[in-house]
Predict the structure.
Amino acid sequence: MNNAVNFEPYSAKELETDQEIRWCPGCGDFAILKQVQITIPKLNIPRENIVFISGIGCSSRFPYYMNTYGMHSIHGRATAIATGLKVARPDLSVWVITGDGDSLSIGGNHLIHILRRNVDVNILLFNNQIYGLTKGQYSPTSELNKITKSSPVGTLDNPFNPLALALGSGATFVARSIDKEARHLQKMIERTHLHKGASLLEIYQNCNIFNDNAFEVFGNKTSQKTNAIFLEHAAPLIFGDKEDALGIVLDAYKPRVVKMADGYSENDLWIHDEQDIFKAQILARFFDTEDFPRPFGVIYAREQISFEKAVQNQLEQEKVQKSNIDLSVLLAGNQTWTVN
């Protein structure tokens, strides 16, 4: 797709619609919507080539608030609809808006398959660790022993690790951001678009009504220093206060947190490599323990032919190989029968 052809610049304001935004005051969805509206105009995509497809949930109201094409679809099936659209119209920029309940529960199978097929769509997974639209039941990402309306004495389900699930599905682009970090979120949205293949961006999003401050430790500027690490390709894994910096080293692929004041230099630390699947799997597993900071940024990215491109190539090859076939002969065939 050549986005430069007939491209007329537009502003973030022009992506707003006349629809009343029906999210609770203070919801993290407002911040995500704002950053998407700021970022999209910078990508040089004509508005008529942009489609937002959502499932069911608070986040899935998103298409109503974007002045582009869009579809508010079926619970958990946005990825399936997006697959069909992208294969039929590979020139379009297709975005899937989904939540942790929508995509990891009823839509879990569809998410797995769009990732393994590597369909060139951009999946923004809003994760607030709760079912917000239906008023506070626990979701697939809710922590163990979570007290909710549907688990009054605590959940018994171990929570899904979305990034580990994506890597296990063969995803070619996996990243994480958070609603409170505007510039970081804009950068990750842009990286999500630039990747040619299935892109999964998990966005930590606060539900201030049913699960307030679930990610405060990663969003608060003070606690963030020792609980979050913002990844940069080819840069060492270092975090914490400048005066009391911490780093992560790898001993035979086993990570360990060290104090830089103990004689370590940046040369001793784990250097982030977006293309290293083994390191990506370790980073994704930082989710499972409080011993390591939660990583934000691009966890993994690699190039692979997209599904719709492979479909196109297959069709073109078949046209060449079977160009001499007479359609009338094919329709008549030699396998006919008579119904008495």
User: Anything to note?
Assistant: Residues 307-321 form the longest helix (15 residues).
